[in-house]
């Protein structure tokens, strides 16, 4: 895997985690 492909993969993984965190926080706010 090239550096570029690795960067792309890491970027996508971090983006997925970020979206999960946003959804989690939104759910938390609604429950309170």
Describe the model.
The protein has one helix spanning 3-31. The protein has one domain (1-31). By secondary structure, the protein is mainly α. The chain has one helix and no strands.
Topology summary:
Elements: H1 3-31
Would you summarize the structure shown here?
The protein is built from one helix and no strands. With 32 residues, it is mostly helical.
- How far apart the termini lie comes to 45 Å
User: Helix proportion of residues, in percent?
Assistant: over 70%
Would you identify the regions where 5 or more consecutive residues have pLDDT less than 50?
A: none
Mean pLDDT: 87
Determine the number of helices (DSSP H or I, runs of at least 4 residues): 1
Largest sheet: none
Q: Helices and strands: which structural class?
A: mainly alpha
Measured on Cα atoms, how large is the radius of gyration? 14 Å
**What are the secondary-structure elements, in order, as H or E?**
H
How many separate domains? 1
Gross morphology is rod-shaped
Number of DSSP strands?
0
Strand content bin: under 5%
